[in-house]
Amino acid sequence: MLRAMSDDEVDPEEGVREAVERSRSGAPAAGRVIRDRFSSDEVFQRIIAAADEEITSGSRELYFSGLAAGFAITITFLLYVSLTASTDGHPILSALLYPLGFIYIIIGGYQLYTENTLPPVALTIERLASVPALLRNWVVVLAGNFTGGALGAAALAYGGVLSGTEATVAYDIAHKGIETAPAVLFTKAAFAGLIVAGVVWVEYGARDTISRLVVVYLAFLAIPLGGLFHVVVSFTEMLYLVFVGDLAILVGMTDFVIPVLLGNTAGGVVLVTVVNYFQTTEHRLESARFEGANRRLSIREWFLGGIAGRSYVPVIDTAAKHARTDEGTYRILVPISNPRTEQPLVEFASAIASAHEQAVVHAVYVVQTPSRSRYNSDSRRELVEESDQLLSEVCSVADAYDVDVETSTVVSHRSFEELFTIADRDDADLVVMGWGEDRLWDAARAERPIGELTNRLPCDFLIVDDQGIDTSRILLPTLGGPNAELSAEVASALQSVGDTEVTLLYVADGPEDAEDGQQFLENWAIDHGLEDAEMIVDESGEIEAAIEREAEDHTMLFLGASERGVLARLVRNTLHLDILDEVEASVVIAERSNGRSLWRRLFGRR
Fold first, then answer.
1. I want to staple 144 with a disulfide (CB 3.0 to 4.6 A). Which of 20, 56, 67, 477 is the partner?
2. What is the architecture, at CATH level 2, of domain 317-447?
3. What is the DSSP letter of 398?
4. Where does the UspA domain start and stop, copy by copy (predicted)?
5. How far apart, in whole angstroms, are the C-alpha atoms of residue 10 and residue 25?
6. Which positions ≥6 away from 439 have C-beta within 8 Å?
7. For residue 508, what are the CA distances in angstroms to 227, 474, 484, 515, 541?
8. Does CATH number 3.40.50.620 belong to domain 464-595?
9. Top-level CATH class of 43-288?
10. Does residue 443 have a pLDDT over 50?
């Protein structure tokens, strides 16, 4: 018979096992241990996540953040000068507060050249961001840093901040750099670049603010102790000499600042590429961007950026698999910002597509991700699955039109620009997009200026103000031109597949021009397949008033964009057309593409 052991008795085997599995320090001697630090792959992924935010920030954001960082560097120069003066030039004591400006910048998240600008190098190496995108980031941040440094140098030179002794010390410190040979400056700056790049890597490997603070302090303390040079500090020192009248700015730039700039850049990039990048495993890209090498930019895109098509690979992009393969298919792209409310937009596109012998409607759920968003593989999978479910419900209306429908999801920091990238990659013939309050496009974010994007449209655009999208009675005012021709093509397509009545409106300058107007409408209708349309010639000469009167009896109003860039003005909410507020009909603004080359117009994509 077995008997239970009392509390005072111990199983010998259990005692031995416990002794083996526990060391004197209390750590297990066997089994897995939860590590208290990130692996090199995990650090790389954190840098990639930060680089997303850097590379997709707008130029204004980057510039003013850089300006704040440049002015903060003035604190470093000021404290270095003050302590040097008060400690009689003691080599250690004088440098104790040198890192303070850098601490403000890094902990505060400001943009500093050689620190915040290095993470995008990792994106560029992986061909997730183009070389032009990286250079643009560098140039904007450096311009902001130099502007802030110039303001700080002016304050020190003219503001009476430095006493007589301190002013002399500032003069001597700045002159040390000017008197150093350019080759030596480059070498010393390269070592400073290595240090700063190391700060980036270690900072993203740290788990708490105190650790980051210690790393930043010790790293930047090494710059004055080692007699090294940082480009923004050097620029501030150089301009101080310019302001006190002892140096020509051109000489200061060529003999001092530029060698330091090149050294910092070379040292930082070498450490990122040769040391940090290649110590990670081959799985770094797959884990950082989910689909691995298939998501990379082409060599041409990587080298030329937006000129060759795109300059950045978004966080999530399932649209790439739908790129055009059949040149004979008419493709309509429908970007969606809210799948729960934009089903009528897909139905409208499907009706247009059904007039073509071969057509595809591609509905893309475009998600503007907020700054510092993080998507691991699980959260990405959940987001895409949820998106697919929502889009399948939205696109069910296409069944009534017997057209093929494709759906995809794009998550990006700059969703508005992704719309143009997808349209170009799809080789889309038409984009049908909604506009109005609470649309994705109201908070458009792009690397390139919005005007540059919208003035070179990759395909035709229909911009729909959704008031129900009833196509039963269409009013089409026309004076001719390519945008009116696009309106006519769409109206003719809708008329051919549904019970749609089309009315053409011509507004003459007066009764004397009415006959010419009637003749114009008759010829224009024949040329554009609208012979059965009702034709109205208004003799008032008041275009908007005439359109408003006639729109009362219609459900949809087509307006040709009166000038290039109407889409940019819609995005910026600067399109002031009273008629848009006066009519109850759904308004469609048509803008013809002008972004395709003659070769592509004749022979398609090659």
1. 67
2. 3-Layer(aba) Sandwich (3.40)
3. G
4. 331-464
5. 23
6. 337
7. 79, 20, 17, 9, 5
8. yes
9. mainly alpha
10. no
